[in-house]
Amino acid sequence: MPSPNVPVTQEDARPSLRTSSAPLYAAGFVTAFGAHSIAAGMGAESENIGLTLLNLGILLAIYDLSEVFLKPVFGALSDRIGTKPVIVGGLLAFSAFSLIGLWAADPLLLGLARLCQGAAASAFSPAASATVARLARGTKAGTYFGRYGSWKSLGYVLGPLLGSGLILLGGLPLLFAALSTLAAVTAIWVMLRLPALEPLPRTRYTVLDLGRQLVERRFLIPTLVLAASTAALGAAIGFLPALAVRHDLDPLVGTAAVSVLAVASVLTQPWIGRLRDHNRLSDSRGMTMGLLLNAGGIAILAITPGSFTIFVSAIMIGAGVGAATPLGFAHLADSTPPERMGRTMGSAELGRELGDAGGPLLVGGVAMLAGLPLGLGALALCVAAASTPRLASRARSSDRRSLNRR
């Protein structure tokens, strides 16, 4: 394996992925764990630190707001200077900014910590995706994006649980201290174990060229799929507990359903990635299947919510997200020139953030006017509509076919 401090090219990077992918998975876990543990913690501690519902909503949104604006910027920066410095710098910044949360009793400082954490995550999240893409491109992109997505989903599952436990033991300051330590340890791990992928020569692009690239089917369709599946995920996480309460179920039913959804996603992503890499599932068919599972799960919630159907819906949505996510990212990895991989992954992550915000907003907006069932039904129709565009069929690369025959 190349030395971690020696730049490697695309050709000699592939063997190193087997031993260097673990710190990338850890970086994905950090961003998901950081976002969801603090979100759950602020909701639990809002009264103790004097937050109004409006202030709580602002603090919950500010993390994602940073990511929407900065992910494409840091993705492009990783193309220019290399992905490893951006990942390490982002993790170290996340660690440093988390220390602001030691004074979390002050809402202003809590908001500042949340804003800065989102900005730091905007750096290392798309750079980590771009690194996975460059290392696995043309070989086992589905497998490794499945594993990467699985670890991020694990962060979504464990975030609220571990975050609540840390808050119970020492309040929000202990949670922020744990996040700071976790990010610092991950940064050191990346520094020591991840090969330095050298920046590749890049063609000079005009604004018009960029516009053309963003509307290419090979970029637009996978990004639309990622946005739609994340919209279903965000709405389900937000409204499953609310549905349980509205139908006189135990509040724990809604929480358990969210956990079932996340576990289904964790288990599905690596499996789907392997099917893709062994040519047993095409990108187009798999992404369509994932979105239809999402739409079906949401439709079940809209039509027949109950103690049994809530769990059926959670499994369908989790499996749908688990199918669509690794296939979307793997297709982008295989169809994007390596020299602009960071920018592409940053833009795709932006699509996911917009979906994450847009799904709950659509459900909530329609629900205010016509009731929650119609709000969920509107989202189900939108997700199903996103499954109709088809990717152009393309043969697998000879590299992937030869590797899979070994």
Q: Classify the beta-strand content into a percent band.
A: under 5%
Shape: globular
CATH topology tier name of the largest domain: Growth Hormone, Chain: A
Unreliable stretches (pLDDT < 50, length at least 5) are 1-15, 394-406
CA-atom Rg in angstroms: 20 Å
Q: Please count the beta strands (DSSP E, at least 2 residues each).
A: 2
> In percent, how helical is the residue content?
over 70%
Main beta sheet, described?
A: 2 strands, parallel
List the helices and strands and how they pair.
Elements (H helix, E strand, L loop, with lengths): L6 E2 L1 H4 L3 H4 L1 H24 L7 H29 L1 H16 L8 H30 L4 H53 L2 E2 L9 H8 L2 H30 L4 H27 L5 H21 L5 H27 L5 H30 L1 H15 L11 H7 L2
Parallel strand pairs: 1-2
Helix pairs in contact: 3-4, 3-6, 3-7, 4-5, 4-6, 4-13, 5-6, 5-7, 6-7, 6-12, 6-13, 7-10, 7-12, 9-10, 9-11, 9-12, 9-13, 9-14, 10-12, 11-12, 11-14, 13-14
Structure notes:
This protein is mainly alpha-helical. The chain folds into 2 domains: 9-197, Up-down Bundle (Growth Hormone, Chain: A); 212-404, Growth Hormone, Chain: A (Up-down Bundle). Helices cover 80% and strands 1% of the residues. The chain has a two-stranded parallel sheet. The two termini are 20 Å apart. Mean pLDDT is 81; it is low at 1-15 and 394-406.
Describe the structure concisely.
This protein is mainly alpha-helical and 406 residues long. It has helices at residues 10-13, 17-20, 22-45, 53-81, 83-98, 107-136, 141-193, 207-214, 217-246, 251-277, 283-303, 309-335, 341-370, 372-386, 398-404, and strands at 7-8, 196-197. The chain folds into two domains: 9-197, MFS general substrate transporter like domains (Growth Hormone, Chain: A), CATH 1.20.1250; 212-404, MFS general substrate transporter like domains (Growth Hormone, Chain: A), CATH 1.20.1250.20.
